[in-house]
Here is the input.
Amino acid sequence: MLKAKDLLGLRTLSTDEMDEIMRVAIPMKDIIMRDIKKVPTLRGKSMATLFFENSTRTKSSFEIAAKYLSADCTNLAVSTSSVQKGETLIDTAITLEVMGIELFVMRHGASGAPHFLGRNTKARIINAGDGMNEHPTQGLLDMFTMKDKKGDLGNLTVTILGDVAHSRVARSNIWGLTKYGANVRVVGPETLLPIELQKMGVEVYTDVDKALKGADVVNVLRLQKERQSSGLLPSLVEYNKFWGLTSKRLELIKEDGIIMHPGPMNRGVEIMPEVYEDPRSVVDEQVTNGVAIRMALLFMMLGGKTSDEIN
Here is the structure.
């Protein structure tokens, strides 16, 4: 089980804890594959999603995970809540907590917001992405996918390609994979490579071809086009030319290598349509695995005790 009350990031999670989450996710994925995708495991348990930023995959994934486990899930529509009247984050959470909510899944534009909420509420918190800090459940589902397809994480060379500076996904992947001893390469334009990478135990490249050569996994990050106005890149066309994952560049990774992307994709920018459609692409499977990982976390954090309870 998890040592801490909250799941805030992979930087503070042990490999034993990550292993346990991924182990529990295996029977959860079996549930997803059934004709009847419903078990009574968390009947009577209550959770709420608090998303202060837009989301499709993560938010829907948590809501579906809760439903498959028979937990009650409340979706707080922040745009129409009392937050718009000036209610504080803590007051919002406490209001829901006294209504019986036991766990909050939270996404916020400010780095550290889930940590702040965790210190000020008795309910458990799952960080669904905070600012440019971490996105731990995405990191877990990415590693779960890598382990399923490639085996021992410690033997892998993983290239993370793209807009690293603004990516919480990249940071969670780096913290998680380096703990297992994986060789992690990070590549992108110099303007999108943060200085702290040098202290995170990764190899840093600006030459895509060198970073891709011999990789077991290439995880392509979404180029956050909303950052274009800040002048970090000359144009989307040039980004695709120098750093986009094309069919030609795909020839550089190992023949049995896999292609990943956390979504949503900018097709024709950071990844070409034919690359997404390549047989080695596991992008769609990542989405399925995301539900399994989130089911595992809800099970572990809302009172599930043994794997026998899952079925």
